Amino acid sequence: MTSESQGIQSLEIAFSIIDGFLSAGKPLGLSAAAEKFNMPRSKLHKYLVSLVRLGVLRQGPDDSRYALGPKLLECGFGILSEIDIVSLCEPELHYLRNECEEAAALAVWMPNGPMIVRYLRSRHPVAMDMHVGFYAPLMTSAAGKCFAAHLPLQAYKRLLLKEIDEGVDYDSFASELEKIKDCGFATRTELLTTIPGSRSIACPVFYGTGAIAGVILLIGFETKPPEFPEKKYITDLQQAALRVSQRLGFHATE
Predict the structure, then answer these.
(1) 3-68 in CATH: which number?
(2) What is the pLDDT of residues 120-150, one digit of tens each?
(3) Is 3-68's fold the same as 82-247's?
(4) Hey, how many other C-beta atoms are within 10 angstroms of the C-beta on 223?
(5) How many other CB atoms are found less than 10 A from the CB of residue 122?
(6) Are β-strands 103-110 and 113-120 bridged in parallel, bridged antiparallel, or unpaired?
(7) What are the residue ranges spanned by the domains of the chain?
């Protein structure tokens, strides 16, 4: 067997470390990481130093723990640009923001949950902000519930268990997922300290295979009447999501 066919073991180890941080979903100190990866501290530390230098990992300024770095986000955006879902959604987000007079956003699924990759502020004099890279909760956000309704359980089980441990009610969440599958959209109807905006509506965008590609959202509704969501917003959002899905090769069935 040649050395080429054997591969580069150190590179494989480095990627296994990155994958370990992805699955951990939180920063890890050297000792905790060494135990998780079953690797001597001295050996692991050399890998961590190199990964931090490359920006793949970062080390917190106030402690010695390691976490995923900005280079992975850049890689993720590079993949997204190849898929082109962001540019495909761009005109629809502008349309929704102008037509509905609320903030519009696009979220995609990442290992740590739904992440905002495009956000257009509303044109209200006082408008809330949401930065690109923001992770929405799984069980209490419109984006999270929309993804959960269309992803296999294994894709979000770790996040689900984490949020259940934090006190989120599973029964109401599971019941809502069935309704989302039937009606085709998800909502958040109350103000939460962990998510910008008072209320939101989310609709899925699908690939040609039928797999969920992303979620388009309308966010805000601070000045709207209590009858939420109004049919107009649902219709506009669903039609926009369908147009993007069709550009990705999706064909809706009755």
Answers:
(1) 1.10.10.10
(2) 988 776 556 678 888 999 999 999 999 999 9
(3) no
(4) 9
(5) 21
(6) antiparallel
(7) 3-68, 82-247
CATH architecture observed for domain 82-247: 2-Layer Sandwich (3.30)
Q: Which residue has the tokens 């995923």?
A: 68
Q: Give Cα 115 to chain centroid, integer Å.
A: 3
User: pLDDT tens, 43-60?
Assistant: 999 999 999 999 999 988
**pLDDT above 60 for 2:** no
CA distances from 126 to 33, 112, 116, 171, 223 (A): 44, 31, 21, 36, 11
Q: How far is CA 193 from the centre of its chain?
A: 18
For the chain, the three-class secondary structure string (H helix, E strand, C coil) is CCHHHHCCHHHHHHHHHHHHHHHHCCCECHHHHHHHHCCCHHHHHHHHHHHHHHCCEEECCCCCCEEECHHHHHHHHHHHHHHCHHHHHHHHHHHHHHHHCCEEEEEEEECCEEEEEEEECCCCCCCCCCCCCCECCCCCCHHHHHHHHHCCHHHHHHHHHHHHHCCCCHHHHHHHHHHHHHHCCEEECCCECCECCCEEEEEEEECCCCCEEEEEEEEECCCCCCCCCCHHHHHHHHHHHHHHHHHCCCCCCC
- Nearest to residue 114, comparing CAs of 229, 33, 191, 219? 219
CB atoms within 10 A of CB 42: 9
Write out the two tokens for 21: 């941080």
